[in-house]
């Protein structure tokens, strides 16, 4: 993770990744720690990972973004490098009220990376640009 999450969150995600690399599964202790650190986002994020709702979208130049199919059926674009999601909950709960570190979509991105459960999709530069611009048009 090349990000600015609190050190305890970074360490937990590293431990989860290591456990999944070694044994292909986590433990109940990870579940309790996730809930403690990430609060109410933890369980819905794990549900999104279980449903394989996270897709890493890559272009030939190496640009990446993540798309998460939310529980509402809407597709959200997430940027793990800067902890940003296009969902309304991120804007309200994370940015406006500072009640949470992350929304469930970004947490699902981090967990799917750690657990090796991320779908992969390679697209052209133009397609990736369209994905990114579509989000701006939705907001405007």
Automatic annotation (TrEMBL):
It holds the Pfam family SWIM. InterPro entries: Znf_SWIM. The keyword Transmembrane helix does not apply. One of its GO terms (biological process) is double-strand break repair via homologous recombination. Coiled coil: none annotated. Keywords: Metal-binding, Zinc, Zinc-finger. GO terms for cellular component: Shu complex. Transmembrane segments: none annotated. One of its GO terms (molecular function) is zinc ion binding. Residues 76-114 form the SWIM-type domain. This is ZSWM7 protein. The gene is Zswim7.
